[in-house]
Write a structure and sequence with these properties.
homodimer; Arc Repressor Mutant, subunit A; two-stranded antiparallel sheet; 11% strand; globular
Amino acid sequence: MSQNEMCPRFEKAVNILSQRWTALLIYQMLDGNSRFGEIQSATGVSGKVLSDRLKSMEQEGLINREVIPETPVVIKYTLTEKGHSLEPVLKDIEKWSQSWIAPDNKVEA
Amino acid sequence: MSQNEMCPRFEKAVNILSQRWTALLIYQMLDGNSRFGEIQSATGVSGKVLSDRLKSMEQEGLINREVIPETPVVIKYTLTEKGHSLEPVLKDIEKWSQSWIAPDNKVEA
DNA sequence: CCTATTTGGTAACTTTATGTAACTAAGTAT
DNA sequence: ATACTTAGTTACATAAAGTTACCAAATAGG
């Protein structure tokens, strides 16, 4: 336990973005992927965690969930304005990675 | 398992930043905090995890560890150029949080 | 010498988060 | 009825994080 003197809004933002997968999921949605299965196979996240993350991102107001009663059913996840507003942050991370991470870095860890 | 088609450098960067505490630790160091105890009490991270993170951040080339043989011993952690280069990313997150996170948000979760 | 204090940790154990694999539900076509 | 597809959930296993107690070095006080 300690006295956190950091801005609680900043901490909240960091907590959101440092939840495993969340940044990658938003990145995928920025990239046009909107369906459960698309996002899952693009990222490799497990169905269980994807389901959890989508729920908490929805509660956080980052995404919307839309049910399209086609057959079979299609669920479309789209970024809200708030979610979309994270684009510059992710692009910054991308830019940083291109300057500072070696190109042949395997993610095997 | 899945076929990740994202840029592996971007993924690596996201993995670094989405490790719990890492972003907050860098933020503290940008703010001038350099000692184990300072960083620990400023953030609230446990000694065990702080120790782990500092090691992996050092291996990642983000920080340097300097032993100053005063009494009692002082260990000084400072950002490398690579570590410091994350400042714009963190400032972007901070800016985002000020626009999109409610001010009275308690971190109690 | 013996004890206490301070910094920067480590070790053992508990709790929480994530991963895996199998299963469910709705809708439809065969 | 059976099978197929999407979008999940459930039960169980493993990994990561938190908690608390302890260790090591260096020194100061008694």
